[in-house]
Amino acid sequence: MGLALGTLLGSNPMEQEAKSYAASDSPAHKVARQAGKHWQTKALWAHAEESSSGLLDSDQDLLPDEAEWVLLSNPKRADTDNDGDDDFIEAIEHSSPISGPSSKLSPRDGFRILINTTSAPAPIGRYFWIHLLFRLPSGKEQDIRGTALLFGNRHQQQLDLSPLLASPLVREVKTRRSSKHGLLKRISIRLPEPIGFSTLAPSSFRSYTLIKNKIHASGGPILFLNGAYHVLTHLSKRKIVLQSSGQTELSNPFWSAQKACVLKVETHAYSKLGILCEIVKADCVTAQVPSCTSACKGSVGLLFTFPDALSLILGG
């Protein structure tokens, strides 16, 4: 499915910006480069055309069902809380899709990176789904002038993953139009977990996109707990969902009870990479799929950097 980068995202003036973040020869960065080579091998690309069940979108709101599970929204209802703004719009706005009427959501240019984890049968194994969400009130796709995708940690060790946007790891590109919000677009990338990735955690996937003349930034932190990767997804004001990619605790009551791990965080310090957060509370709450492992309670006290600083503090 390898779409050309120019076709997918424009001429990509963000490419140089991404490369400037990836100019380190530290040991951690060398591991990151090895991960990048792993993600770009033809052996992985050969499996890119296999089942895309992770992209099933039952309610046709552009959010895959598995991404909605992480947001705790209903994948069979486009507007879970029936407040007049569908779940895709609330995801872009970092507004909770389950909290009832939102504050007025303005139809402005918008962008967000949304990540969920999934396990698949061999030879694919565990992997991340990275979804790039766009809102273009003008209705003009050419307003997206370029996008950079990065992976790095709070020590500013960065890897430019932008070339993956032109690889067969891009599994789906979908759009729909809204009378209120213009053109809505999702680009979904399936990224297998590479060996050695854990040495860079806590870390995050980050993306910068240039819409017209404004740069929009978004990201999703990654932790490595109890031998498995965990994705942190912003839900609402100072609340985050922790999702595990591991399957080693299937007999654990946390899994069988169909619960999701919701964290409460406190903020400490700011940097150009985001805001330093501490997990102060962790609860397993009722959810549609089993995704709360024992790592949930064990995460209390952990520090990590969250790229979407304002959304985390303000809740939208």
Describe the 3D structure.
With 316 residues, the protein is an alpha+beta fold. It has one domain. Helices cover 18% and strands 38% of the residues. The chain has 9 helices and 13 strands. The chain has a 9-stranded antiparallel β-sheet with strand order 4-3-7-8-9-10-11-12-13. Strands 1-2-6-5 form a 4-stranded antiparallel β-sheet. β11 and β12 form a beta hairpin.
Task: Report strand %.
Answer: 35-45%
| Count of structural domains | 1
DSSP strand count: 13
Going across the major beta sheet, what is the strand order? 4-3-7-8-9-10-11-12-13
Q: Provide a count of the helices.
A: 9
Biggest β-sheet description: 9 strands, antiparallel
Give the H and E element order.
HHHHHHEEEEEEEEEEHEEHEH
Question: Which value, in Å, is the CA radius of gyration?
Answer: 18 Å
Low-confidence stretches: 1-24, 40-51
Distance between the termini: 34 Å
- Give the quaternary arrangement of the chains: single chain
* Proportion of helical residues: 10-25%
Global shape: globular
Mean pLDDT: 75
**What structural category do the secondary elements indicate?**
alpha+beta
Task: Tell me the layout of helices and strands.
Layout: H1 5-9, H2 15-21, H3 27-39, H4 42-45, H5 65-71, H6 87-92, E1 110-119, E2 126-136, E3 144-153, E4 158-160, E5 170-178, E6 182-192, E7 203-211, E8 214-225, E9 228-236, E10 239-244, H7 253-256, E11 259-271, E12 274-286, H8 295-298, E13 303-306, H9 309-314
Antiparallel strand pairs: 1-2, 2-6, 3-4, 3-7, 5-6, 7-8, 8-9, 9-10, 10-11, 11-12, 12-13
